[in-house]
Amino acid sequence: MTDPVPRLPSLLEAVLSVGTDLDLRATLQRIVDGAAELTGARYAALGMTDPGHDGLVEIRAARPYAPGTEKGPAVPTGDRLEVPLCIGDEVFGDLWLAGKPDGPFTEEDEQLLRILATQAGIAIANARLYETARQRERWIEGAAAVTTALLTADEASDALAIVAERARVLAGATAGVILQPNRAGGMEIVTASMLGDPGNIVGATIAPGSPVLDQLLSGEPVFIDDSATDPRMTTHVRTRFGPSMMLPLQAEGRLIGTLALPRTRGGRPYTPVERLLATQFASQAALAVVLADARHRRERLAVYEDRDRIARDLHDLVVQRLFATGMMLESTRRRSVAAGGEDVSEMLGRAVDELQATVQEVRTAIFALQQPPADAPTTFRGKVLREAAGAAAVVGFQPSARFTGPVESRLTEPVAGQLLAALRRALAAATRRAGVSWIEVTVDVTATLPDGRPGVRLTVRDDGAADGVPPGADRGARTGTDHGIPTGADRASGEGRGGGEEGGGEAATGGRGAGGDGAGTTVTWQSPL
Predict the structure, then answer these.
(1) Which of 263, 320, 398, 410 is most buried by a 10 A CB count?
(2) Pairing mode, if any, of strands 400-404 and 80-87?
(3) Mean of the per-residue pLDDT values for the chain?
C-alpha cells in the first residue's frame, strides 16, 4: 500500500469542496467530481439506495480523456472501484469509479475514496437538514398565505380554488385538484388548478365501489406511485398523471373534501418529507376554509340582524304613524260627508287611499329587508319581489308590489307557479312599452271570481303606451293576447274563462283607467284557490 500523504492537498481540497454547498444535488455533484479528480478516474457516479427518499436517482461525472489515450466505451466494464456512502447507520448509496488511465485502482485510491466518503456523509446529512428546513419554511409560508387569503377574501366561494392553486405551486405538482363527496355516493372534482389546459378535469368522478373511495371518505391520506397504472384509480383522467398525493381536507371532525396533487407520468416521486408537509398543509388549509366560512356566515347574519332591526323600526315608527294618520283622515272624511262637504270628502278619500298604499309599500319593504341576503327567495312574497327587481333592472325604477290577504298560507304551489309565470310575462310586456314611468303589482288572495268562488287575482298596471299609442289616447278596452299575455281561453286549453281547477287563469287588458288621465295598461290574471 502506498502512502496517501503526497495527495493530501488534493484530498483536503476535495473535502473542503464537498462541504461548501448546502443544496443536496449540488453537494452530491461535488462529491462525484471530487472523487474523479482525486483518483484520476474518467468516470464517477453516485447511485442512491433509496431514490424516493430525496427524489434523486443518480449523479454522474465524466472526465475528458488525456491526450493520446484511446477512448473507451461510454460505460467501462474493466477495473472499477466502489465504496458505500453512509450517513450514520444509514447507507445512502454507492460511490463508484471506473476508467483509470494509468492502470488499475490501488489501495491508496480506495483509502482516499473512503476518507472522502466519510466526509461526504456528513455533508449530505447537513444538506438534507437544510433542504428539509427550506421545504418546511415554504409550506408554512404557503399555509399562512392561504389562511390570510381566505380570512380576508370578500367571498368564500373560491376558497377551495385558492387552496388548490397554492398547494400545486408548493408541491411542484402538475395539478392541484379538490374532490368532494357527491349525491351518488362517490367523489367529484369540483375545482382544479393546472399547468396548461385543464381539459375535462373538473366534473370527473370517482364512482362508488372504487378501491380508493373508502380511504378518501374515511379521511385517510393516499399516496400513489403512478396514477395511470394503479388499480385503485378509476377516473378517466388518471392516464395523464403519475405520482400523486390525495390528502384529506378535514377540520373539526368534518370532511370538507380531498386535495389531490398529481405530477405528470414519469415525474419525480414525492419524498417522505414532502408527503408529511403536504398533509400538514391540508389540515391547516381545511381549518382555514372552515374559519372563513364561519366568518362569512357571521357577516351574513349581522346583515340580516341589521335588516331585521330596520324592519322593526319601520314597523314600529313609520307604519303605526301612517296608520294613525289614516284613521284621523278617515274620521275627518266621515264628518265632512255628514256636514255636506263632498269636495273635501273626495280629497280626503284620495289622501286615505294614498296612505293605505304607502302602508302597503312600507310593509313590502319590511318584508324585503327580512329576506336572507344573497339567498334565493323561498317564500311567495320574496319570489314576487325578485320578479319586480328583475323588471327594475330594465326600466330603471322599482315596480311597487302590494299584497292583500294571507298569500303565503292560501296559495298552493301550482297556482303560485302559474301566477309567477303570468307576472313574469306581464312585467316583460310592461317594460317594453314606451313612456312607462311606474309599474304597480297587486296580488289579492281575498278576491271573489265571477262564478262566486274564492280566488286570487294578479293585477299589473303601468302608465306606458301600448302598441305605439301615446299615453292619454283613447284605445278602448281590449281582450286577447297583449304582448305575450294570453287570455283565459288561450291558457285554459278549453276550460273556459277562469281556467277551472287546473289553474290556467285569465288575462285581460284595458286601455283606460290605469293612470290619472286614463292612460296606461292594466293586465289582470285570476284563478280559483
Answers:
(1) 263
(2) unpaired
(3) 78
